[in-house]
Amino acid sequence: MSERPDGRKFDEMRDIEAKVGVIKKANGSAMFRIGKTIAIAGVYGPKEVHPKHMEDPEKAIMKCYYNMYSFSVPERKRPGPDRRSIEIGMVMKNALLPVVNLKEYPRTAIEVFVNIIQADAGTRCAAISAASMALADAGISMKDMVSSVAVGHVNNEVVVDLNKEEEDVEGTTDMPMAYAPRMNKITLLQLDGKISKEKLKKAISLGMKSCKKVYEIQKKALKEKYSNNGE
Ligand code: UDP
Known about the structure:
The chain has one domain (16-222): GHMP Kinase, N-terminal domain (Ribosomal Protein S5, domain 2). Strand 1 (16-20) and strand 2 form a beta hairpin. Helix 1 packs across helix 2 (123-137). It is an alpha+beta fold. It has four helices and nine strands, in the order ββββαβαββαββα. Uridine-5'-diphosphate is lined by residues 73, 77, 84, 119-124, 164, 167, 176.
């Protein structure tokens, strides 16, 4: 079996590290690292809505913000929001909404901020995995956790967790996915590139299998915090 640029097997994700409670002043927070990609998430709320006319008497409103720091990539990124980060904020929100019980918090706002401090592809997936852990850490009522990883088609093979080098290969297809394992629900599926029906099925199944592995790592990190009395 031929291997990938960094020597991984086709179904092998990069090394993952996850931790909750990394921002003491936030209601919930998490760090999620996959290879060289690092996301830090902070959740604030449920809190008062500003401006007040935005509040919903039926449920909480959830706002998601994604930011990639200038220094996170080899070629300095212009600071501040751009089209890409606004889109990823929306993508994150859509991936997380199916699991969050917003109806339990009427007239409030839940804010989710994710910062990418180092990027080597797969940042939106790392952002979703980190945000999901931070929401759980904040004690927000949830039906499930969301676990996320990209799958794709590189050099004629279906692979999981593309790094930047693989994303840059000519003809690569990149498919960020998010999955809630207990609900058995795919909450995000994007597709950049072309792929056959048969390989698409294979990629989705590899994505679901890999998200289940991410889920176990997320759960372990949450349990670790609470078995150490919050420290
Ligand atoms: N990237 C970059 N500069 C930018 C945007 C992206 O160097 O302004 C890199 C970064 O490594 C990122 C990768 O390109 O992870 C892929 O970006 P994409 O928009 O596909 O999203 P991602 O895979 O990070 O979710």
